Amino acid sequence: MGKYQPQRGTYDAYGGFLNCFNIVLNVLSEMAKQYNYKEIITPIYESTDLFIRSSGEGSDVVRKEMFSFKDRGDRDISLRPEMTAGVIRSVVSNKLYANADLPLKLFYKGPAFRYERPSKGRYRQFNQFGVETIGVTSYLSDVEVICLGYRSLQELGLLDVKLKINTLGNQASRERYNQALKDYFQDKIESMCEDCKTRFNVNILRILDCKVEEDQKIIKECPKLDDYLDDESKEYFRKVLEMLDQLNIPYEVDNTLVRGLDYYSGVVFEYHYSSPEGVNLGAVGAGGHYPNLVSEIGGPSLECVGFAFGIERLVTLLEDIIPETYKEPDLSVFIGHIGKEAIEHSLLLADYLRENYIDVDLTFDDKSLSSQIKLANKKNARLFIVVGEDEMKNYVYQVKDLSQKTQMAVSYCDLVDYIMEKLSPSINDESEDFENDED
Ligand code: AMP
Fold this sequence. Notes:
The protein folds into 2 domains: 15-170 and 230-325, 2-Layer Sandwich (BirA Bifunctional Protein, domain 2), CATH 3.30.930; 333-433, Anticodon-binding domain (Rossmann fold, 3-Layer(aba) Sandwich). The chain contains 15 helices and 17 strands. By secondary structure, it is of the alpha+beta class. It binds adenosine monophosphate. The site of adenosine monophosphate (AMP) has 17 residues, from strand 6, strand 10, strand 11 and helix 11.
């Protein structure tokens, strides 16, 4: 077991998990590039104040979940609980909006930190992938972001995505709704949970997120956001939904969806997915429109829209749904030697093949050919090349296909082409059987 274990809510990534993790990040990055999003990397820690400003004092993230500390220079620092704040801070610090055609389209990936109670799909250090469109001038940017998230999940093989969508309305609508909520909860808040009491004062909308059963009964009867939306907000939302229809993206309007972070207003959405056993990990991704964050942290008035996916949740789903992604890739070639003298030649041959982008492994211990074939099978090698006295003299090698149990003599100059062809999905096989081969 060793003396030290990973800290609560953290984990070590390797093997099949890491392979799947990397597949997810590659697919998401490639998809974002197709939509012309450019990558941005920002620091893992920022000033605590930035997160209070962006997520909001009343958000759970700020009140209960931040990893905050003072650095040696007595600065208040926090590990990022999400990435949007850092990305927008960077856009403002570097004036990225000034020399770019707006909207600016950025994507990011990396770890985020929240002091939450760990459970399946919930960690204290987890990874997010997300996009931000900065400088939105049309409802179509909202649609494009929602579409990118949806299509990315499909590309990963997650075909049964549930997209939940809602609008929080524009600022004016939200203010009127907040007032209606204040009036409604005024004489009920004393009997509600401590979290709700805090939310009543700092961000009343978040009361709708409360999971306490007794509070739920009160919340059920509260004014509905829908009744407080003005025509402009309704029209914007209608156009977004209509465009999603045209794109054949199914959705479910969920009036209770309010999102945990303060900066959203306008369209908000979540992607949900249930695993085959019906386990719901919560949202695999979420996002929305946020009009004021850039100006609140000192930049110009630019509206934005974005989403973030939780990578671990996507990996957990893929492990269930497409188990092939959750294993290490096969090895292409294992080079086996006959006799000590062939080991150096084998390494030279490996170097040549690796230079040609073929992955190769071999052993430097002098083992029998049959135990090397066993080793190659253990490493899931596709092909096995034999290097013996004749091969070193003639530069013609026996190449065995370990799954098809066939073999073929191939000269050095044809070797790369032959291997490439063997490894490509459609193989036209003319080699002989080696079932009874002996070493
Ligand atoms: P949020 O920033 O809260 O909207 O989160 C965006 C996505 O990140 C969620 O939909 C989850 O998939 C993922 N996520 C959030 N918190 C955690 C966590 N503690 N552990 C793992 N994934 C998380």
